[in-house]
Design goal:
Elements (H helix, E strand, L loop, with lengths): L5 H6 L1 H19 L1 H5 L7 H23 L3 H26 L4 H4 L1 H9 L1 H18 L4 H26 L6 H20 L9 H12 L2 H24 L3 H27 L13 H4 L14 H12 L3 H13 L4 H13 L11 H32 L10
Helix pairs in contact: 2-4, 4-5, 5-8, 8-9, 9-10, 10-12, 15-16, 15-18, 16-17, 17-18
């Protein structure tokens, strides 16, 4: 019987955690519902299906790397299932209504129900944006982003028009939003004309792209809020000023985090402990001879540069040079460095909280180390077949 290795068990941990969480949720929300009803009268059983479905899809996100080797495919599927998890959770939460909105505010509940299709479209738009952003080809990336913006504009317009059934001023906000998203879509679509052979078209598209219409649109939304919406909110909700200040503080925190993220990831930390990087030199102890290349001290810095920042160009150039000067053919070189060439980092939101930044950076660092381990494995496999061409870079 084949033994399951430690890495596989680690990757299967989310499944075990899922089963434990489902059991706990079932016990609390289903079995203990009569007891909980004595303290807070909610439909606790109706929490179970939305939460369980959300946890199941999030678990699929965690175990996708177990069966998919290509990183771009991994990330695309992960974004897809993250989107599905929210597209199932939010509508299910509205339909099952565990907080009994239907009894508390029937018109508001019906508006939420009528907005479900637009909420799903909005989640789909965000998912398309993240998947499309992974593509390096302009011909694929830009249409994906454009489609996501169009879907976002349409879905937000639909949600606002539904809420206009209760608050009429949402009609004006819906019209303004669709106009703003149309300008953003036009700005993105202009990328296709920047390389046009027609000088007028090229000039206009370059101006349109550089005009920062998206920033202007944000300014328009702020102006509309201050002129039309704020007075209504202040008259309707006593807590409106407090909510305003909370939103301002939240935005300032995200701006600060985004600037800090940009500064932190721009420079390489020169004080990194090399022992923590699991350098190839400590993993492979073979005596070899090199034909021409002798700048081996750079390999440690290139490894550190890649693991810490994701900059792989110097490491790729080094490996290709060494392999080429040791008479490896192009097919072999391509096979050996493929994991490094195909690797892309998970995107870090510009305005990210510190905990979110740390989580993404930790994930990216772990993946880069796995890429280096994969390259090392390929080298070991190839070098066992060609012992006379063992490279000194693997010492």
């Amino acid at each position: 019987m084949k033994k399951i290795n430690k890495k596989t068990l680690t990757q299967l941990q989310p499944v075990f955690i899922l089963l434990i969480l489902l059991a706990i949720l079932y016990f609390i929300l289903i079995i203990q519902e009569p007891f909980l009803q004595n303290y807070l009268p909610l439909n606790y059983a109706d929490f179970f299906i939305p939460l369980a479905s959300f946890l199941i899809f999030q678990t699929v996100v965690k175990i996708i790397p177990l069966g998919i080797k290509k990183q771009k495919t991994q990330q695309s599927l992960q974004y897809l299932f993250i989107g599905i998890s929210y597209a199932v959770f939010i509508p299910a939460f509205i339909i099952y209504d565990p907080f009994t909105f239907q009894k508390v505010n029937k018109p508001f509940f019906f508006v939420l129900q009528n907005s479900i299709i637009y909420i799903i479209l909005l989640i789909a738009a965000i998912t398309i944006y993240y998947i499309g952003s992974l593509q390096k080809q302009k011909i694929i990336r830009i249409p994906s982003v454009l489609l996501s913006v169009i879907l976002s504009g349409f879905s937000i317009w639909g949600i606002l028009t539904r809420f206009a059934e209760i608050w009429s001023f949402f009609n004006q906000l819906a019209l303004i939003s669709i106009a703003g998203f149309s300008l953003v879509s036009l700005s993105i679509a202009s990328y296709f004309g920047t390389d046009s052979k027609s000088i007028p078209i090229s000039t206009f598209c370059n101006w349109f792209v550089a005009s920062q219409l998206r920033n202007y649109t944000i300014g328009v939304f702020i102006a509309v809020y201050l002129i039309y919406i704020r007075s209504f909110l202040l008259n309707s909700f006593a807590q409106a000023p407090l909510i305003e200040w909370l939103i301002i503080i939240l935005i300032l925190i995200r701006i600060y985090s985004g600037i800090k993220n940009h500064v932190d990831t721009t420079f390489v930390n020169q004080k990194t402990d090399l022992a923590q990087l699991q350098s190839w030199e400590t993993k492979h102890k073979q005596e070899i001879t090199l034909k021409k290349y002798n700048e081996l001290e750079n390999i440690v810095y290139y490894q550190r540069l890649f693991i810490e920042t994701g900059e792989k160009t110097p490491l790729l150039v080094f490996l290709i040079t060494v392999l080429n000067e040791n008479d490896f053919d192009q097919k072999t070189i391509a096979d050996l460095i493929y994991p490094l060439v195909s690797h892309t980092d998970r995107l870090l939101p510009y305005f990210a909280f510190s905990w979110e930044k740390k989580r993404v950076l930790k994930y990216n660092k772990k993946k880069r180390q796995e890429v280096l381990d994969n390259v090392l494995f390929r080298f070991d496999k190839k070098l066992n077949q060609i012992p006379e061409k063992i490279l000194q870079v693997m010492t």
